[in-house]
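Issue: copy button drops trailing tokens. Both records pasted manually instead:
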Amino acid sequence: MDDMRTMVMTVASGEATLAERHDAFEGLVLAFQDMAFACAYAVLGDFHLAEDVSQQAFFSAWRNIHQLREPDAFPGWFRRIVLTECSRVTRGKRVPTVLLDDGVLAAGMSGNPQKGIETDEIRKAVYAAIEMLPVSERIAVTLFYLDEQSHSDISAFLNVPMTTVAKRLYSARARMKEKMMGEFKRKISSRRPSRNASFAQKVRAGLYDEYVGRYEFELRPELVVTIVREGDQLISESTAGQRNVLIGGGRRGSELKTAEFDGRGKFIRNRQGSISHLLYFEFGCQMGRAEKIG
């Protein structure tokens, strides 16, 4: 808990460098990636959508960490972000539920058709049983069987007492046969993000890459600032010949500063949450507004 608190405080800090904030946030990603994925999968029923939604939830948490007043409340706060991202996906349309991997199923049937049919029947039964669970139980059982999360961790993430977690797990087990639970555990565990470094790497790259692009100043269209990523550094290059290393600045996480002098950029987001404009300041005075053009 102390480590989590320290990481949250570092991410929200206006004094830490961008690299330090990203390192701290990567620690949070590693700690909560499986929980985010399990929660999203329990709601959406689709492995690929669950991974996409989990990544978007981390991006949203990064952008809005300043809204979190108490670092210890991060698990429950982050869960609400995951559920919000799930709602955006499901709003106005039905999400196809895909519990099983068609490739795995096809391979099993080609090697042993009878066994493949039996496996398919088991998986369909698992799907039907999971689908019938209330959402609260579905989330609890998915969190538990994804990587055998402790009741304490699940309690913090769901923001409910451990007794409630135990009741939900007991109820879910009572509704599902042991064979079904074993198949569900095997399948969900094989998809957990922590099985390799890919998920965390994608999130880290995304935190840097959202700034990357070309920014054209509205009153001076001949002046274009290009932000590129070089390893774990962001570099700005302008058509005026300037090249600067950018560092984090500002508690709200929407600003970057030049390391060499008192230059500051404030990034504006559109309704979709994507960066659309850059406001540039020098020595506290706004010098111009640039539109992100690519």
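Record 2 (pasted manually too):
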Amino acid sequence: MKKILFLGSILLASISFAQETKTDSVKAWSVVGQNTLMLNQAAFSNWVAGGANNVGWQAGANYNLTYEKDKDLWENIIILGYGMNNTKGVGSRKTQDVINLSTNYGRKIGESSWYVSGGAGFISQFAPGYDDGNNPSAAKLSNFMAPGYVNLGVGFTYKPSDNFTMTLRPANARWTFVLDKDLQYAGVYGLKNNGDSSLFQFGFLGTAQYKVQLMENITLMNNASVFSNYLDHPERLVLAYGGILNLKVNKYISANVTLDLLYDHNQITRTQLKQTLGVGFAYNIDNGKKRSEDKRNQEWKTNK
């Protein structure tokens, strides 16, 4: 419950920050984000074909806070999500659980779209995950900070437009934390020995974000990353992709389709897939737009 309250506090802080940034007509900051509450439900009574009553919800926040002025570029990404489903005869099962925070600062190289940059990232989850369809009575597979990933590195960032950002870090430290004692066994998330709580890796990290407007009120946000550990089996790439398809109905109603793919040899030697679909309430924040496409002028002008 504390972790869910933490999610709520992040959402409120982000909304408050976005409102504060509208006080002046010109800003170097841009805050673009979406808060969502997706619902699904099914009920059956004397239905010969069968079925089980169920109700589910997913709450999430996806924010991009960017400072861009002169030669400075500072991007901050917040992705939070949690969801549950309760099915009659089965009970409550977790359907969504993600914490993904990152920050990256860059200094422009000349008049190009390249920046010398450095940044950090954190990935984990709010609550325990279990085997057998996330059955709480089955074996525990994961927990908050088990695993938890922290990245810290330097390299270069390429940002030719507001819709595309690519960061390449040839020097990136990656820590894997397993703070749940029930999961501290050799081989679990790459741990070398029983009782270990962390694993250190050093290698190359590449990330990219690409936003596409497929048609009016339909957008697709793509996030991808690749990591190679120089210290041990560099050929075992950690590959991740996350896609969010947003179909906006009106100002407050939208449908979201998400797709997540992950391959990490230290977790499991198979590709992991997660897909969700929800219709519900969405509150969008977009406090700014560029005054000009001229990349030499990176200030933002708030919408009227």
